[in-house]
Amino acid sequence: MSEFDVIHQYFTRAPQHSELGVGDDAALIKLGANMELAVSADMLVAGTHFFADTDPYQLGWKALAVNLSDMAAMGAQPKWATLAIALPNINHAWLGEFSRGLFACADRFMVDVIGGDTTRGPLTISIQIMGEIPTGLALKRSGAQLHDDIWVSGRLGLAALALAQLQGQLRLSPSAFACCSAALHSPQPRVELGLALRTLAHSAIDISDGLLADLSHILQASHLGATLHLNKWPQACYWPEAAGLDLASQAKLLLSGGDDYELCFTAPKAAHDELLQLGKKLALDLCCLGEITRDSGLLVHGLDNSRLDIKELGFDHFK
Ligand code: ADP
Ligand code: MG
């Protein structure tokens, strides 16, 4: 049973007072006639989501950043956060650095931390984030339309490469490891991109569990399928210095590496040029990787254009 089965079986009910409940990057609550509140929560647990000895500054940044990524995926302007934290003990040096990282991220994205809860326990950080969005402009997972282009921001797989090195599976050059490590420990939530996509995209999700897994949530919610062409990815996105990884391993990192916190979104073909301009303006790679199709399911053509067996990548859960 996956976490999604648990959520579906035990925690999903039709909402009585909200526009959108369980099942998207954030829930939506109507605030007057013109504005909606987007609400989401994400928890980081030591030993599950991060190593217990992770740099506390980076952990503070990342705990908020992963929540902001869900606001970005909705096209919401993040404004308020609460912090619930369980600490094994009171370590002033650790807390000082953690709060410095947390507020560096809060200041960068102009978010107020307005409350929370503090208790003793195994190190666990749970943040709830709230943001605003004009009514009707939220980028829902269910909004994809037939023949939409499928776009991805940034460079996928970097965090997964850093993790693979930390787990002793490969050895990157020092400069490549520095870059991948930054992606793993200090993700940059694509809030400005999400805001700009409100009027350009039909649907969006942030990539936290790997592109295939997260795109499949859009496809399921929109009752559509997709074809991806990895050879459309600009070469700059690959990491050939990644210790002799073959094409299949590179494709696997791009498609199923976790912790990217980039956005995957779908947009009408008419928005293509404007999206390329937007990427230039934001100094962010935006890559059109494929198309939404009528047939449910996901077809992937690999870096050498051959068709990939996505079951081999561990994606037999998407039917
Ligand atoms: P994301 O990766 O965008 O943070 P998740 O995969 O964690 O989203 O969750 C999927 C959906 O299920 C979201 O809408 C989330 O709010 C909801 N959800 C997760 N856990 C629970 C829970 N325990 N009770 C109610 N809703 C939940
Ligand atoms: Mg999300």
Outline the structure in words.
The chain is an alpha+beta fold and 319 residues long. Helices cover 33% and strands 25% of the residues. The protein is built from 9 helices and 11 strands. It has helices at residues 3-11, 56-74, 92-108, 158-166, 174-185, 191-197, 211-222, 247-256, 272-282; strands spanning 27-31, 35-45, 77-87, 112-120, 124-134, 149-153, 203-207, 225-229, 262-267, 286-293, 297-301. The strands form 2 sheets. It has a 6-stranded mixed beta sheet with strand order 7-9-6-10-8-11. Strand 1 (27-31) and strand 2 (35-45) form a beta hairpin. The longest helix is centred in the N-terminal third of the chain and has 19 residues, at 56-74. It starts with a helix and ends in an 18-residue tail after the last strand. 42% of the residues are buried. The model has no long low-confidence stretch (mean pLDDT 92).
Q: What key attributes describe this structure?
A:
single chain, binds adenosine-5'-diphosphate, 33% helix, six-stranded mixed sheet, binds magnesium ion, 9 helices
**CA-based gyration radius:** 19 Å
- Poorly predicted runs are none
Number of helices: 9
Percent helix range: 25-40%
Overall strand count? 11
Q: From the helix content, strand content and strand pairing, which structural class follows?
A: alpha+beta
Q: For the largest sheet, list the strands in their spatial order.
A: 7-9-6-10-8-11
Q: Report, as a whole number of angstroms, the end-to-end distance.
A: 16 Å
Largest sheet: 6 strands, mixed
Q: Average pLDDT across residues?
A: 92
Shape: globular
As a percent range, the share of strand residues is: 25-35%
List the ligand species. Answer: adenosine-5'-diphosphate, magnesium ion
